[in-house]
Amino acid sequence: MSSYHLDHLQYLETEGIHIMREVAAGFERPTLMFSGGKDSICLLRLAEKAFRPCEIPMPFLNVDTGHHFQELNEFRDRRAAELGAKLIIRKVEDAIAAGIAVPSPGEISRNRLQIPTLLAAIEEFRFDCAIGGARRDEEKARAKERFFSFRDGFGQWDPKNQRPEIWNLYNTRVNTGEHMRVFPLSNWTEMDVWEYIRREKLDVPTIYFSHTRKCIRRGGQWLPVTDILPPRDREEVRELVVRVRTIGDIISTGMVESRADNVDDIIAEIAAARVTERGSRADDKAGEAAMEDRKKQGYF
């Protein structure tokens, strides 16, 4: 008698497809968060495998801080068009103008302002579920998430009062105004993501590969020089060969010096790395408590 055994990536893929189909079966108005980053690229592949040849039964949603890398936005728009998907973009700038998001005096980062912008979009379209690409290996607050993570009528998360998930059974019930965040990649690692990208031959934004960019050293990391992030007095601008491991907005995304210009080189680099993926994100420097507080307020 022969038996069929799944390898590691096949198991993760099967798990993700199962969760995608649970979302389609359990919710009336789901959305898939798509930024164009490597994790959400894997989500799209899972959605394709879960629902093709039918259309993907949910629109894509992206919260644009106005501080995004142009390479990322161009990839986001192109990929959504290739899939024939509806892409909804809600901008932090518009939320500020409408009084939905209120920046604090002197606040430059728009990280916090994504929260009211996202919650307003969820309310606008009456989404009862939002699928995201967060993984438990990224940092400690995200490690506390379940696959199906309940949000109350204010979009808030209570990590100490989560629904049990036993034998792959998920409670998808929500009342009007409540919603669920769902994370099909919860059990994936950064290495799994890149090995899946290699196996599936997935296209990714060029910013993930080595390129020459002007950078400044600030807060213990290399940050890209842009109109949004100009050099300060006495800061030396250096032209380096760099890439990104994880992409936030321009002012929080640290560049890593790297010659990895293909997926195989990236996988080898990750295998040898001694710094976590999000160690290059300035918005994570405040620590676990700050991230957990943002997530409790509605941050993705």
| Shape descriptor | globular
Give me the number of helical elements. 8
The share of residues in extended strands comes to 15-25%
What pattern of helices and strands is seen along the backbone? HEHEHEHHEEEHEEEEHH
Highest CATH level, the class of the largest domain: Alpha Beta
Major sheet strand order: 3-2-1-4-6-5
Classify the fold: give the CATH topology of the largest domain. Answer: Rossmann fold
Question: In the residues, how many domains can be counted?
Answer: 2
Low-confidence stretches at least 5 residues in length (pLDDT < 50)? none
Q: Let me know the number of strands.
A: 10
- Give me the CATH superfamily of the largest domain: HUPs
From the 3D coordinates, which CATH architecture of the largest domain would you assign?
A: 3-Layer(aba) Sandwich
Helix content: 25-40%
Terminal residue distance: 46 Å
Which structural category do the helix and sheet elements fall into? Answer: alpha/beta
**What is the mean predicted local confidence, pLDDT?**
89
Largest sheet: 6 strands, mixed
Using the CA coordinates, give the radius of gyration: 19 Å
How does this model look, in words?
The chain is 32% helix and 15% strand. By secondary structure, the protein is α/β, with parallel strands linked by helices. The chain has two domains: 8-193 and 288-297, Rossmann fold, CATH 3.40.50.620; 205-282, no CATH class. It has a six-stranded mixed beta sheet with strand order 3-2-1-4-6-5, with helices on both faces. A four-stranded antiparallel beta sheet has the order 8-7-9-10, with no helix packed on it. β1, α2 and β2 (60-64) form a beta-alpha-beta unit.
